[in-house]
Amino acid sequence: MPLLVMKFGGTSVANLDRIENAAKKVQEEVARGYDVIVIVSAMSGKTNELVGWVEGTSKLYDTREYDAIVSSGENVTAGLMALRLQEMGIGARSWQGWQVPINTTDAHASARFVSIPRENIDADFAGGNKVAVVAGFQGVTEGGRITTLGRGGSDTTAVAFAAAFGAERCDIYTDVDGVYTTDPRIVSKARKMEKIAFEEMLELASLGAKVLQTRSVELAMRYKVRLRVLSSFEATDETSGTLVCDEEEIMESKVVSGVAFSRDEAKMTLVRVEDRPGVAAAIFGPLAEAQVNVDMIVQNISEKVAGDAKLYTDMTFSLPVNQVERAKKALEDSRASGAVTYAELITDTETAKVSVVGIGMRSQVGVAAKMFAALAAENINIKVITTSEIKISVLIDRKYMELAVQTLHDTFGLEQA
Amino acid sequence: MPLLVMKFGGTSVANLDRIENAAKKVQEEVARGYDVIVIVSAMSGKTNELVGWVEGTSKLYDTREYDAIVSSGENVTAGLMALRLQEMGIGARSWQGWQVPINTTDAHASARFVSIPRENIDADFAGGNKVAVVAGFQGVTEGGRITTLGRGGSDTTAVAFAAAFGAERCDIYTDVDGVYTTDPRIVSKARKMEKIAFEEMLELASLGAKVLQTRSVELAMRYKVRLRVLSSFEATDETSGTLVCDEEEIMESKVVSGVAFSRDEAKMTLVRVEDRPGVAAAIFGPLAEAQVNVDMIVQNISEKVAGDAKLYTDMTFSLPVNQVERAKKALEDSRASGAVTYAELITDTETAKVSVVGIGMRSQVGVAAKMFAALAAENINIKVITTSEIKISVLIDRKYMELAVQTLHDTFGLEQA
């Protein structure tokens, strides 16, 4: 029997009506001849309520207890979904993480999969049930303690089950109807993509297109799980939404597939850093320890200063605005301890990042030049540039962000399929 | 290390403040040198919310899914209680039913204990933890499905753990400060009892004194678990509340310990039932099938009717008022099928039951006579009488119920210890 994995997020199971609506989508797939593994999140708001109770009880909480508590929301929706499917005459049962079992590491609150044995669920399908409803976001350690996978973990659960059970596809039902070339709230001509390659989705996901959790896309890419993003609030059929797949499935891909952005970026520059082996580690080690998420890093070439035998460089990096104070403190501590020397620390909290992403870039030259020219034509100054094989990112003044996104969307002709 | 079981009901863990308050009571016992097994209910209202969702999804629901859903409330409070105890510097962890494991039958929604192996929790105590916080009301089948014990099951969980672990005492913290000689809302002179025998508590519990669930008292009696009922909202020490214990622990017991009552009783009389072997079964079998809870049953002596070779009798029984219609239909169906014959069905829905309970009755004569005389002196007519070794119950007009309870409380001197 062909098998599908269908995942419903918190807004898709927020109340009994929405659970019924989601169950109807499962019913449609069962009618098409599939066995289905359904992965459910907790009702939207429930996990936050539980986390609030944990944090209200203990500041430095035991993550084993945190996991035991916050995993309960998914158990409730899994049971309710199974009941609703039964009500529709579909053989279904719920599965909690320890019942499958979903074996994970014991890194509580951010556990990783170890194995998902198929025996129990396969036996349930063999016994006549058509649907296995699995509580997302959770697992169990070898020692029998409950774990969770960290926020957004239900997407990852879905992909892991699709891989373990060789599912034909993993459908992620959410509150948007697919992946767009950019945010339609900024560019009205933004277009829903029919297909997108894993690598592109990965860059878009980590750049702030919050449709899919990065880790789930990585996992899908590794196991070649065809991932579909579609809306649980609209009528859907087999061609709805956006398919995230191997690039080989995409016949002819455009040079640039999408424009991503991240609004609340800051830029910090360390001026006249003494350039010696190990200086980058001396700067970014303490930042990492201080939980600062450094994104782009640019180091200028070294220069000599007259009358000084040492070499000096400027080091610039970007980070989320709300981590600037933490970063400052970490750097000043490093300087005070003598681990790092610099003349000045310049902070710019009014920047944004804009990126173009596309696997077609690999075989095309001139994409960066075209991008820079387009921004220049609008008088948008570029502060930092970083590039990867399939992505070019620039840091610019925040006030120009919308203009830059619109300009690049036009320049690369993204409104046309 | 001596061990205590402490059970906190839904109102005692209704929010984070109350959980903290309950945790302080656990802390006091740990300070006295006890290892403690804490049994928690769900936050008050949570189980009802979950049951509402189940019933809103499916009318004839799969009880396996019901159990998986409604058991989640206790998992949350168990985790929160463990965190709060850790915050106080007390080694503690939570235990869900399947982790202990609490092995039960697979009678979902009303499962019974099969075994509670001590290995895992004993190992946890041996590892240095002082408190095991166990989610009440739940268990797990041999096949790995979650079960619940039915409403009030957390009391039963507490007693079962006390028996399995040989606890010195099982303390049931609730929203009243003990067991009273009768309801203080009706008799202002009602007195809190220091001790009460299991048998008496059992009669009081099943008669409507809703402090402890009947099943938990039965279990405590069978395993001789000393049970204490006390308030979680007042300062308590080792002498607080009411101890429910073996009668041997009660030095000198009064003839009557308490007066119980049940307000909403109805009385049904089948007039001129043909009296032949099997007639009682023919009447009460169908009533049981119709889920009618018949309580008192009285059968008058048979009589002969002139010109008829058969014997006839009148059969009277009591039942909850809200089950009268169901009982009527079952009896009329039996009559229509010819299984039972009777001349008339008389229903009285304006009655109440009043009972006096006391193990001292066993060795004292004249208790019934004294009770009937006291009621007669107040012109209260007795409609039905039943007696057991330690209880005398009468059915009377509902409007006299309060008067009867006050009169009997006075007559047997219950205001004095």
From TrEMBL, chains A, B:
Hey, which pathway is this one from?
Answer: Amino-acid biosynthesis; L-threonine biosynthesis; L-threonine from L-aspartate: step 1/5; Amino-acid biosynthesis; L-lysine biosynthesis via DAP pathway; (S)-tetrahydrodipicolinate from L-aspartate: step 1/4; Amino-acid biosynthesis; L-methionine biosynthesis via de novo pathway; L-homoserine from L-aspartate: step 1/3
Keyword Kinase included in the entry's annotation: yes
Q: What is this protein called?
A: Aspartokinase
Q: What is its EC number?
A: 2.7.2.4
> What reactions does this protein catalyze?
L-aspartate + ATP = 4-phospho-L-aspartate + ADP
Report the residue ranges that make up the ACT domain in this protein: 268-348, 356-417
By sequence similarity, the record places it as follows: Belongs to the aspartokinase family.
InterPro entries linked: AceGlu_kinase-like_sf, ACT-like_dom_sf, ACT_Aspartokinase, ACT_dom, AKii-LysC-BS, Asp/Glu/Uridylate_kinase, Asp_kin_monofn, Asp_kinase
- The domain of life is Bacteria
